[in-house]
Design brief:
This protein is of the alpha+beta class. The protein folds into 2 domains: about 140 residues, Glutaredoxin, CATH 3.40.30.10; about 50 residues, Antioxidant, Horf6, Chain A, domain2 (Antioxidant, Horf6, Chain A, domain 2, 2-Layer Sandwich), CATH 3.30.1020.10. It contains 6 helices and 11 strands. Strands 5-4-3-6-7 form a 5-stranded mixed β-sheet, covered by helices on one side. It has a 4-stranded antiparallel β-sheet with strand order 8-9-11-10. Helix 3 links the parallel strand 4 and strand 5. Helix 2 packs across helix 3. The radius of gyration is 20 Å and the shape is elongated. The N and C termini lie far apart (about 50 Å). The model has no long low-confidence stretch (mean pLDDT about 90).
């Protein structure tokens, strides 16, 4: 199967819309996003070990994402019936209760649309000769704008806490005129945005610390970031 030309998806691109069959029924992706955030993440195959652990971990953290107005939606290149049987295994292994939808993308139409395919590993194909999906993560905001793209090889599982941390960073930096430094977690100091003049910084962040003229730190309490 030759792949059609995939759209160039970059940070700031509008997330392509699509209609899909999922374990929770038919969806229109933009309608599913609504006025909240969404995390779309793909998996190479059903009934595979790493994917099973990942979906279980996301399911157990779903409540934390919900508090942040974030919906989860998975994708795997298999049929709806396969997904429904697989969810039983996921919940058994992880002790979870998976409730977010998983897209059935056996024909790879959405995988091509979001460029979720591994073209380097020619052996990474299913029984029909179609390429399997890799571990892609897209964080999309309420304006349907792609804010983060992560891509992992099939052999490496993702870190759910890192995905949650990025959501906290994106939402905090959207609300306040700051950026988050290396290894930031809610409650740590943040960087005053470069676009903020020193005069404005004095008003917005009284007592900020200028480590260098271009590196100004200020306190942002966790309660201003995390949902209460």
């Amino acid at each position: 199967m030759s792949a059609p030309e995939a759209p160039r998806l970059r940070l700031g691109s509008k997330a392509p819309n699509f209609k899909a069959t999922t374990t929770k029924g038919e969806i229109d992706f933009h309608e599913y996003i609504g006025d909240g955030w969404v995390i779309l993440f793909s998996h190479p195959d059903d009934f595979t070990p790493v994917c099973t652990t990942e979906l279980g971990a996301f399911a157990k953290l779903e409540g934390e994402f919900t508090k942040r107005n974030v919906k989860l939606i998975g994708l795997s290149a298999n049929s709806l019936q396969s997904h429904e049987e697989w969810i039983k295994d996921i919940d058994e292994v992880a002790g979870s209760s998976l409730s977010f939808p998983i897209i059935a993308d056996a024909d790879r139409q959405i995988s091509y649309l979001y460029d979720m395919l591994d073209y380097q590993d020619v052996t990474n194909r299913d029984g029909k000769g179609l390429p399997l999906t890799i571990r892609s993560v897209f964080i999309i905001d309420p304006k349907k704008t792609i804010r983060l793209i992560l891509t992992y090889p099939a052999s490496t599982g993702r870190n759910t806490q890192e995905v949650l941390r990025v959501i906290d960073s994106l939402q905090a930096t959207d609300k306040y005129k700051v950026a988050t430094p290396i290894n930031w977690v809610p409650g740590d100091d943040v960087v005053v945005a470069a676009s903020v003049s020193n005069a404005d910084a004095d008003k917005l962040f009284p007592g900020y610390r200028a480590v260098k003229p271009y590196l100004r730190l200020t306190t942002l309490p966790a309660e201003k970031v995390l949902p209460q």
